[in-house]
Specification:
The protein has 177 residues and is mainly β. The chain has two helices and eleven strands; from the N terminus they run H-E-E-E-E-E-H-E-E-E-E-E-E. It has helices spanning 19-33, 102-105, and strands at residues 40-42, 46-48, 60-68, 71-79, 92-95, 109-116, 123-124, 127-130, 137-142, 152-153, 167-174. The longest helix is centred in the first third of the chain and has 15 residues, at 19-33.
């Protein structure tokens, strides 16, 4: 099979028809050229600009990431526990598994999240941005109306006072430092 200038294979017009074989060859050449590393687990930290929150008993802090070709993909979930929960004070920050390239991406959106309040059933869909103060974490903000002049940071009291069972999920992609 011939290859592109980037080394990806494709079937020539003169090749015998073999759709599955051609797709397999292309997939194998993409994996060889742009390998995706395996998912690696990490424990994401939830901190705040003032007093850090206390996640409490039986809290969940799950994260996973993979790094490939100058890109980090990261997914995670934090659930406030069943007892001993304190929301803390200030705007929340979520720890990243690999430091980000702040020079290239400070204050830019790198992904999205879903936050859920158990007691009311309310949820919001904030966006994630790298904070210019450091490449080891991201912050979340949400819009209350469109068009909006300012995004409201997610924190100890916004969009609600965080309590037992409240949950944060995210998906972000960014350039590593």
């Amino acid at each position: 099979m011939p290859t592109t200038p980037n080394g990806l294979v494709y079937p020539a017009l003169s090749d015998a028809p073999n759709g599955p074989g051609a797709v397999q060859a292309l997939a194998e050449s993409i994996e060889a050229k742009y390998p995706l590393g395996p998912w690696t687990a990490y424990t994401p930290a939830l901190t705040a600009s003032g007093t850090n929150p206390t996640l409490g008993t039986a809290a969940v802090q799950l994260g996973r990431y993979r790094e490939s070709s100058g890109l980090v993909l990261c997914q995670g979930k934090i659930v406030f526990g069943s007892a001993g929960v304190a929301a803390g004070a200030g705007n929340y920050r979520v720890g990243l598994p690999v430091p980000a390239n702040i020079a290239a991406w400070a204050d830019r959106r790198i992904g999205h999240a879903t936050i859920y309040q158990v007691s009311s059933g309310n949820q919001a869909e904030p966006f994630a941005t790298l904070d210019a103060a450091g490449g080891g974490f991201f912050t979340l903000a949400y819009l209350t109306a469109l068009p909006a002049s300012n995004a409201i940071p997610v924190g100890a009291a916004a969009p609600w006072a965080w309590a037992v069972g409240d949950t944060l999920w995210w998906n972000v992609a960014y350039e590593p430092a």
